[in-house]
User: Which sequence fits this backbone?
């Protein structure tokens, strides 16, 4: 029987129950007449056939939980920011549900997901808990999009894929903050001695925070290179200049695996007072907030070390391609944010052109 009513009479609705290639489909039609219920059942059969076809093509479950797990095994766990990827996948499953079929995710679902994330607050640094930035909310949407992209490689077809662009929140253009000599001196004076090498390395290389957390296996003294996985899983290669060598060389022997360590000031959370422990992302973030307050430096983020280096490097060389390579930008559009430092060179060039045009006129006037 395709449609039926429960014998106990507790529900006024007709139900459907059928199998296609070993998969069982059942549920309520939400209809009270047999004719209307049979129409719904025919629609459910068509949807079921399409789903079974998708499963056969993908040879994988289309449940969001299973898709996320397969993505994690194939891609996520190998990324430089694996812990962040795992967190974003957990958020998707929390909101959409582990049994949600990925091919049934609609624009409406994504709209609700964005609204849900906009109501979240960032983890507190000291006191205030501000709402998530549009940039952070967009990361969640982009993570869902990556699941769709990966599923396509498995053979999954999406008849109505969400319009991703319309769900991305506008993000203000990233500012470029330069560190003044006075601010640099204040930060240096306020920095703990055991942490000074780490911040000196960050300032000298312009690497992102996660990229600064080095292991000795990533430092090759023979080739004078540091090779590490960076943003988007790309290889980031940093030349060991004399300055960088001077920072890193004395740190050998502090820890067998990690380059940058700190001296525990008290015994707690598995740390032993007076012993060295590896720097972590969270530790650096927390200490950075404290350091800036102690030094009286306002509005300068750790990431601004990167902007500071890019700005100064472009001012020194005038070479955008060089700065792009130094900062490991995949797209030179990211490097163009520093182009403002060349404005004075443009102005000087315009002035030289204007003078060269006026020079012949002056000579003609003298002759006449």
Assistant:
């Amino acid at each position: 029987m395709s449609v039926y009513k429960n014998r106990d009479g507790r529900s006024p609705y007709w139900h459907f129950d059928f199998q296609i290639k070993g998969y069982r489909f059942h549920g309520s039609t939400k209809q009270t007449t047999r004719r209307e219920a049979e129409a719904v059942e025919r629609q459910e059969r068509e949807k079921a056939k399409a789903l079974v076809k998708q499963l056969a093509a993908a040879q994988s479950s289309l449940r969001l939980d299973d898709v996320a797990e397969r993505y994690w095994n194939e891609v996520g766990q190998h990324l430089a920011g694996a812990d962040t990827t795992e967190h974003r996948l957990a958020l998707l499953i929390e909101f959409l549900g582990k049994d949600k079929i990925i091919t049934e995710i609609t624009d409406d679902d994504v709209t609700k997901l964005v609204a849900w994330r906009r109501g979240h607050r960032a983890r507190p640094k000291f006191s205030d808990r501000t709402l998530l930035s549009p940039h952070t909310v967009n990361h969640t949407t982009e993570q869902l999009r990556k699941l769709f992209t990966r599923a396509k490689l498995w053979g999954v077809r999406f008849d109505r894929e969400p319009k991703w662009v319309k769900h991305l929140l506008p993000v203000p253009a990233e500012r470029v903050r330069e560190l003044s000599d006075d601010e640099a001196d204040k930060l240096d004076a306020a920095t703990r001695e055991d942490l000074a090498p780490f911040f000196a390395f960050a300032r000298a290389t312009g690497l992102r925070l996660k990229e600064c957390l080095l292991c000795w296996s990533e430092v090759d003294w023979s080739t004078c290179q540091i090779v590490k996985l960076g943003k988007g899983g790309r290889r980031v290669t940093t030349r060991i200049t004399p300055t960088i060598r001077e920072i890193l060389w004395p740190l050998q022997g502090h820890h067998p695996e990690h380059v940058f360590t700190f001296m525990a000031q008290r015994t707690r959370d598995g740390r032993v007072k007076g012993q060295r422990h590896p720097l972590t992302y969270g530790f650096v973030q927390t200490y950075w907030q404290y350091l800036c307050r102690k030094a009286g430096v306002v509005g300068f983020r750790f990431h601004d070390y990167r902007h500071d280096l890019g700005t100064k490097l472009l001012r020194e060389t005038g070479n955008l391609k060089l700065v792009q390579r130094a900062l490991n930008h995949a797209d030179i559009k990211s490097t163009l944010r520093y182009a403002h430092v060349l404005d004075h060179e443009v102005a000087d060039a315009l002035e030289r052109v204007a003078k060269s045009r006026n020079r012949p006129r002056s000579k003609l006037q003298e002759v006449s």
User: Anything to note?
Assistant: The longest helix spans residues 34-58. The mean pLDDT is 88. Residues 263 and 276 are 5 Å apart (CA to CA). DSSP finds 14 helices and eight strands in the chain.
